[in-house]
Amino acid sequence: MASLLTTPAELDAALESGAFPDGGPVRVLDVRWRLGRPDGRPSYREGHIPGAQYVDLDHDLAAHGAPADGRHPLPPVETLQGAARRWGIDPGDTVVVYDDLKNLSSARAWWLLRYAGLTDVRLLDGALQAWTDAGLALEEGDAEAPAPGSISLAYGALPVLELDAVADFADSSVLLDARAGERYRGEVEPIDPRAGHVPGAVSAPTTENVADDGRFRSTEQLRSRFRMLGVEDGASVGVYCGSGVTAAHQAVALTLAGFEPRVFPGSWSQWSNHPELPVATGPDPR
Fold first, then answer.
1. Which of 71, 119, 125 lies closest to 92, judged by CA?
2. Is 241 a catalytic residue?
3. Do the domains spanning 2-133 and 163-271 agree at the CATH topology level?
4. Of these residues, 166, 180, 241, 254, which one is catalytic?
5. pLDDT (tens digit, 9 = 90+) per residue, 159-191?
6. Which residues are registered as beta bridge partners of 203?
7. Which fold does the domain 2-133 belong to in CATH?
8. CB-based burial, 158-178: b 16+ in 10 Å, e otherwise
9. SS3 category, 129
10. Which of 97, 104, 63 is nearest to 80 (CA)?
11. pTM of the predicted model as reported, rounded to 2 decimal places
12. CATH architecture of the domain with range 163-271
């Protein structure tokens, strides 16, 4: 479980030596993205971890189709593979991802790269804030482009939930909604066409998985939290969010807690764009 996360000191040492002691050569990805400010490149250029390659979440980690596909459907694997090679990733590399939002955005890269077959992808625990708090230097402008990588990717290394399986899953297993509580309850809906949640889903805002400093809570704390939400040992658990971004952050927390989550990539943005599918509102799952 420790290899899911890395500390600033561990990453700094790996950058100095060129590799992690328990991994391979290090590649660092800066995945800055926010719902109201999707282009993170200006912030990246103001200061990023030395050598980190900028990742455009909307174009490198998502496709763009019809509304019924959701706001961030998975990109074709060829698109992701081309981006990964542009970032310089080779077989055996250790990839570290971070953002400036408590890893709520960079977790998308963590999950998608693992789903595509990379086995050693880590998040910088505490994200960029932890790096600067440790007194470590930032680099301005664009990082030097690496030599093209040779990684080959294929989807399917992690379990997912497709749209047509979500309703039955919510009936038989635990489906967690990672959005803010007010969106789950249907009190507000800032972007998607309908407010509420998938009937049977349990409210579990992903922001509660981290402390105020952005670091993930301990394994014991996370296990306790998910058990209180109905996730018992050996249980099937799925997760969704607004468009499949912060659901990946919830998947990190669930994995740290010892569970094997299924992500619904289309999430609420896909479900709510299908008027034939039911919607629940209020604080209760149904």
1. 119
2. yes
3. yes
4. 241
5. 999 999 999 999 999 999 999 999 999 999 999
6. 177
7. Oxidized Rhodanese; domain 1 (3.40.250)
8. bebbebeebbebbeebbbbbb
9. helix
10. 63
11. 0.96
12. 3-Layer(aba) Sandwich (3.40)
